[in-house]
Amino acid sequence: MSIPASGSFTRSAGLISAIGKQLKTINLKPLKKITVQFDPFYNNIKDTRQFLFYLSTPKILGTNLYCALKTNIVCDRSEPTITFDLVSGDKIVIKSANLSTLELLQQYNKHITPLVPKEEEAKEKVAQLTGKGKKGAKR
Amino acid sequence: MFCRLEVKLTALSSSSKNTETAGQPLSRQIFQQQKRFRSKINIQRPRAPHYERAKALEFMTPFFSDPKANKSPIELCGLNKKYEKMQKVEVNPYKDFLARECLNWFRSSRMVGFFHENSMTMDDKFEFAVPLKKQNIYIRFYSSPVVRAAVTNTEYEAIIPLYCSKVLTVFSPDCNVTKMHKISRKFPQLILMAGILDGHLLNRNEFLEYGKMSLTSARVGLVQTLQNAGGINLNQQLTHHQSTLVTRLGQIGTSETVIEESDK
């Protein structure tokens, strides 16, 4: 009687690696505006600010140049919220007080990344393939 | 000690007679072979050494005190030791130096601004620093542990939660909030969170509002509002009798002098 393989074959590469993995798939195409509202004196603000930092990197902002990243600083002891305004007109609000940076990124990839138009994805793939072919021809 | 040497002398007996007869010198070889006397060496349970030797051996054996003696099982637990290691704070003289410098900046500046720093190149930071320096405003980057070390048990302790993520701090001996805000608006990567003005920690809106106000204009405004709110009337009522007395006395004085002059 054989025993089926269970569990992971490799160890986890750590938190930073997991965040990096999530950041690779992030795409701002379905968004019109991102508003991050936080009180800087709130207890669990670290992860929201970290998430804001990751979103502000040029590689991620470059996925949609028409997406505005806005920050709203308040001082009313309210919990931090991240509002995603979609191109379709819908709004997604994440209350991020009790979520870690990795969880925030996972939630983004779960709810917003699947809304990226598929045609564009296909085009990108084609472009990548053709790009590779040219490189080969040069050699 | 345990074995004996046996030497076997063997001569080439078979060919000796022939060689002697031939008149040639005898060639004899010596073979040596070691042989054990009785049995194998007793390694596993050697016999006790001689009394005198045993005394010497006993005298020569080193002895060490037990490091685990007089310690409770809780103290000996490995996890506990790990926790203690984590609790230990590393003392770094350079960190202390930075902390002292940081506190000095806080103490010697009238205006301090705290910016949340998003992804930003060093070139951009430099471009931000140049116009600020022209206005006598200086930017500094301090990490969370340094600020914590600097500010704990001082009047600035409330700013520690701001340093949970990347923070750019701005110091100035003057109160140049409007100019600083004008320059920082060109850099959307920096987000003003809070500030300290004249030793008062203020939130973003209050910091900007208070920074806009100049003290003289505020005083003028206050005087005007007080006067508009019945200040002039109150003043007249309070000084009415005194002022009438003064005018009367003035009148009398002037009339007397006029009479005296006419008499002369």
TrEMBL record, chain A:
One GO CC annotation: mitochondrial large ribosomal subunit
Protein keywords: Mitochondrion, Ribonucleoprotein, Ribosomal protein, Transit peptide
Keyword Phosphoprotein annotated: no
Keyword set includes Ribonucleoprotein: yes
Gene3D superfamilies: Glutaredoxin
Compartment list: Mitochondrion
Highest taxon, organism lineage: Eukaryota
Coiled-coil positions: none
Family under the similarity heading: Belongs to the mitochondrion-specific ribosomal protein mL53 family.
Protein name: Large ribosomal subunit protein mL53
Organism in which the protein naturally occurs: Cephus cinctus (Wheat stem sawfly)
TrEMBL record, chain B:
Organism: Cephus cinctus
Sequence similarity: Belongs to the universal ribosomal protein uL10 family.
The protein, known as: Large ribosomal subunit protein uL10m
The keyword ATP-binding is annotated on this UniProt entry: no
Taxonomy, superkingdom: Eukaryota
Gene this chain is encoded by: LOC107273673
Keyword set, alphabetical order: Ribonucleoprotein, Ribosomal protein
Record's GO cellular component terms: ribosome
InterPro entries: Ribosomal_uL10-like_sf, Ribosomal_uL10_bac_type
Presence of the UniProt keyword Flavoprotein in the record: no
